[in-house]
Every structure is written in C-alpha cells, then in structure tokens.
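Exercise: predict the fold of this chain.
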Amino acid sequence: MAFKEFTLNETQSVVIYKRRASRSLRLSVSPTGQIRVTIPAWASYRAGLAFARSKQSWIADQKQPALRLLDGQAIGKAHHLRFLPQESLAKTKPTSRVTDSEVIIRYPATIGENDPNVQKLATAACTRALRIQAEQLLPKRLNTLAGLHGFDYNSVAVRQLKSRWGSCDHNSHIVLNIFLLQLPWDLIDYVLLHELTHTKVMRHGPVFWQTLEKSLPNAKHCRKEIKLYQPVFNSIGVSRMA
C-alpha cells in the first residue's frame, strides 16, 4: 500500500495511504494521535491533503487524553514498571534504569509520578526495555514459524512503528514493530504469519487470506481481535495481555 506523509499544520502531520479497494476518502485519528487519510489508488495525494485540511475542526475534536503509565504496569513480556518516589531527589531530575525484569523510575517525591517530565522519562525507558525484548524475541519467533510453515524471508528488522504492526516488501524483507510485545502471544503469531504470508502473496485478497489460514486456521478471529489494540503502552485490549 503506497503512502506519503505531509505537513498538515504547524504541529501536526498526516499520512495519506492509497488503496485499490478504496472507493472514497476516509479520515481517522489513532489513539496515539496519528492522522490518517485513505484514498482510492487513482486519487492524488493533493486531494487527500486537501480533504484532511478541510476536516481540521473534526480532527481537533478527536484529540485523545494523554495516556498515563502506571506503577506495576507490564512492559512487554519481561518487564514491569516501577515508580519510586525519593525524598533525597527533591532538587534533582528524575532518573531511569532498565534491569532484566524492571523499568525503574526514581523521581522527587514532591512532584509525583504523573508529572509530565516523569511520564516522559518513563515512556522513553519503557520503550528502551521493549526494544531490548523485541530484538531478543521477535526474530527468533519469526524464524521458528517460518520453519514450521514452510516460509522463506530475506531479512528481519525490529523498529518502533507509529501505526503498523509489521510490513513485508517485494524482496521479502520483514519489519516488525517493537510494540508487538504488548500483544498476547496468539496475536503476535498472527502478525508474524501475516507478514510471512506476504513472502508468497503480496496483495491482500482471497488468495492471501486462504494462504494465511493454512498456517493459522483462526486468522479471521485474530484479524478482528487485533483491531482492539494500538501500538502504545496503554491499549484497549490490555486486560487480555499474556
């Protein structure tokens, strides 16, 4: 699916996607604040940008409240977040540390864990922990599934993506989102097998879904359930995390 990113205004950008199956222009705003316009393949990117600019009032109304990281929250499959107030840090900045099992945030007790600077530091540290886990776990799992189901791919990279769980190009280079580790394992496998299926069938269509279902019979159910999640630390489906 072809796409380009444009500047919408001084503080926002918009990603415009072209889809062959689209018959009209569609606008959406993700929980992370990403603005997305989907247009028919024959339409111009300029038309998509003009459409987004005409809807800026609606976009402003969709602004989500800031997601707050919580003490004890699971970060991926191996870490938990710990907020530790420190009386001794009254005049210093908050600090972060990532261990084998915890993301530890120490901050002045006078400001609290909801302070924007504390939350910003926690987000950065949790992202670092998630990336470590993703680099350790996702390529190994992808290789295992490829072997089990007879897929071949050229390379795999692990990155932080804004809205997509993964991608596979025409040369069978696969990219996986570090936030996959915020999903339950069955949905992680769904995404990995989805991208592996693209090594045989690039375009979504009956043949693609039939090929995927040979490896994952409940692919339709997973496809529906994954829509409950977003690549963020706090997601709608967080209660199902395992």
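Check your answer against the key: The longest strand covers residues 79-86.
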